[in-house]
Amino acid sequence: MRSDAVFVTGATGIVGSAVVDHLLERGEPVVAGVRTEADAAQLPRGIRHRHFDFGMPAHRLDAVLDGCDRLFLMRPPPIADVERYLFPLIDAAMRRGIRQIVFLSLQGVQANRSTPHHVERYLREVDAPFTFLRPNFFMQNLATTYRDDIRDHDEIFVPAGRSRTAFIDARDIGRVAAAVFTVPGHLRAAYTLSGEQSLTYRRVARILSDVLGREIRYARPSEREYLARLAAYGAPEDYLAVQRMIHRVVRWNVSALPNRAVRRLTGRPATTFAEFAARERAAWER
């Protein structure tokens, strides 16, 4: 088997599927890690795939990476114990002489001790050939996490105050990943990925109103109101704690600064929120 494929974890997820698509556009061989045959059915026709689970025994991980010389690594949101579940895959990659690991990290991770921070630190400790992608808040959050409030109640219900966010399209993250995998010069580099616009949620609501042809409001709830609604929906306490932290960061405008990293790394500008909303409008249509 050729040994020049990219092994992609999370290959059917929002970011992983974009990585797969953009690698294929560049003519790169891909091996997708999937948990089930149902997941495999979501992949582009003809793509190679093999069973992979972060919980599989360490001795099987070398075989998982057979034929691959690069690895796209992302942490599934439910996994908090990265030492148990992600480090063994990194170790296997190092044993096999993987020449590049692109890790999907988090904006600002270098300034806190969140889970992605631990992965970045370990990749440095083992002298891995890493590239860190540190994206801002995904535009896709509006079409997934906050979709129902927009679709069913015509409102964006997040405690962001008057803050701004330079949202990024996850498809652009996939485009960047494909670029840094296929163009030299990105080893041991870290890139903060933001959109080129800094938007308030009031502005986001106006854009959605224009695209959908009905008024979408930014409700601007307090943190207490937001967390109370999540609790009423049955959200567990640890999820509430994460949401509290995330939106405090938003209100501090940590995520407000736009940049041109997507344009610089891929040669094309980042997707605007209006372009994203037009593309994904079905998510909010009734």
Automatic annotation (TrEMBL):
What UniProt keywords apply to this chain's record, in alphabetical order?
Oxidoreductase
Q: Name one GO molecular function term.
A: NAD(P)H dehydrogenase (quinone) activity
Q: Per its UniProt record, what SUPFAM superfamilies does this chain match? A: NAD(P)-binding Rossmann-fold domains
Which top EC class applies here?
oxidoreductase
The residues covered by the NmrA-like domain are: 4-230
- CDD domains named in the record: TMR_SDR_a
Pfam families in UniProt: NmrA (PF05368)
* Protein EC: 1.6.5.2
Q: Cross-referenced PANTHER family, in alphabetical order?
A: PRESTALK A DIFFERENTIATION PROTEIN A, PTHR43162
Provide the protein name: SDR family oxidoreductase
